[in-house]
Amino acid sequence: MDIMAYANFNIIDWHAISAGIDTKTAWQEWQETNFIWPEGEKAPVDKIPAMARRRMSSLSKLAVQTALTLVQEQEVDYLIFASRHGELTRTCALLEDILKGEDASPMAFSQSVHNTAAGLFTITAKKAIPVTSIAAGENTFHSALIEAAAYLSDNSNHRVLVIDFDEPLPSHYQEFEQQEYQGYAFGLILSGGDDFTLQWNKKPSIKPDVMPHGLQCISKLVGSHSQWMIESSSTQWTWTHK
Question: What is the residue range of 170's domain?
Fold first, then answer.
């Protein structure tokens, strides 16, 4: 017998960006055109000061820009940055330098850790807010939501900012890439409540994920769905919106 667990929360606001897509209307067009990605476009990074921007990877820019956009008008009490692969592209570049006999850049090394984007955001925004960085394989996005719901259950008057962000695997790992997408960041401000219910149970799927879970969620939000299901190889995630 399957055991299903659940979590409740409200979505106060959300924002997502990718190259050529930076508004809810643009995301809706992406969803309606069967997830066709714009070509030759760049993601906006105007919220990030130029000095800080030059030191960030393309992935960190996406995450920090999204977070800065959402905290412009909303106060948050807790941050959760979630990325399946994190700064793997930067790590691969460091390893290539070492294999060539070159010295690894200390700055690049310091920003190759999984909580790079979270630290860069708190520094850039000048906000000393508690933060957690999460990596949980294909279930990374939903694991971040569970973390947020657990925090809100103990802090019902607080708000949590969740940033889900990722990019395709670098060329050295392309044989392991099973999804087609481009770099993105998806941010949600959550509060306590029951507008949304997320249920999950262990139920292996024979269907491979076509996109990261965060991108699948965006497609459902812009499509105004009241219920949807997202599956990984180990877990079935069911969303219900009142």
Answer: 5-241
